[in-house]
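Below: protein 1.
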Amino acid sequence: MAGERLLDAYLGWLGGQRRAAAATVLNYRRDVAGFLGFLTVHLGAEPDRRALGALGEADLRAWLAHLAAKGLAPTSRARALAAVRGFFRFLARTGGPENPAAAALGSPRRRPPVPRALAEGDALLVTEAISAEAAPWVAARDRAIAALLYGAGLRIAEALSLTRAEAPLPGSEAGLRVRGKGGKERVVPVLPAVRESVAAYLALCPHRLAPGDPLFVGVRGGRLNQRQVRAAMIALRRALGLPEHATPHALRHSFATHLLAGGADLRAIQDLLGHASLSTTQRYTAVDAARMMAVWRKTHPRA
């Protein structure tokens, strides 16, 4: 039986026995028909059961590469692969042959989303804002944390893991030693404004902190956790009317994005962020390119 007739039988089974929704059947028709059309060109003839059973992983990867070349997103390619896998399972149930290559092939990996940075003014506002509801020392603490995220590019966990002895304070130009993911250490420079923010917090903190105690503590003196930092950021975001993506981690994204926009070297940003791979840091080039395109569309006379 040729591929087109096999597809009709598969779709009839989906809509009849499986009671799939009409939209699902339509999507599967498009995806599997596209697959069979590719194979007709790839193999030089319309595939039948025997040809479908003989397909190897290389043939299926060639099809996925064809979809990628057409501009299909990883999610769309994964959906198409799921439809084709279902088609092969149907063939195995209705006389074969089985094709293990389809089941063994991994789904296309979805790219991590491009980080969303805050506007420079919004990021600075977070580091300088004074909460009308929080106690003065708590507001100072939150500003100091925000200053470390935006001014030094720390992760939330990295900032909260600092001890009192490690506090970057005015009068010193030493870099801050940070313990990052996987236990890797890096040394980052600390701006004077960040040092002053940390000093302002310590001057107001009501708890006596020993050198080995956590630098950032809650109202009872225990180590602050990430959930509390996120909750404080939500409250501040609402009070200041900031966008929904104004999160603690967005401050770190903003640190990298604004450095890149200012002409910083990508390798230097990688070192500052503690990324093991340059490809992770390269996501910020997409942010900067998108920003430049937005400026171009807004200001260029021919845009």
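Below: protein 2.
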Amino acid sequence: MGSWDLGSGDSTAEVQFDFLTGESYLFEVSFDSSITGRDLFDVIATEADTVDGLEFTFDYIAYSFGDFLVGVGINDAYDYGEGSPPDYLDTWGYWISDGTDDWASSMVGFSDRVLVDGSRDGWVFGTGLAPASIPAPATIAVFAFGLGRRRRD
């Protein structure tokens, strides 16, 4: 799992991507002004160019009512789909949560979801399932510190 802190500002939102291969990636994005779930993608794409070891791409179809996410690539992971029959599962499912609330399938598109401090967005490809449970970046750092410390003993 990869995890990155990007952006700047007093408010923070998380966006998680779960690929069909089982890989999960978490971005914690800081911001000041109003931002949508779609805007997070632009922040990540812009900032990824300045982070060593991070490649981020995304593809979408623009409709009059909003954007439809069809492809996401993070480093070597990439999934693309437009919802082909018969099961229509080759799509990115959009899940939302605020704070520590449980994940819920979004009833609005990511262009219309306005994020607040503590918002969480999750994208899962190809399964229809809620995002995987992964620890927050701070928890990962504490865990890694503990492992490093244990090895020195």
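The first strand starts at residue 2 and ends at 7.
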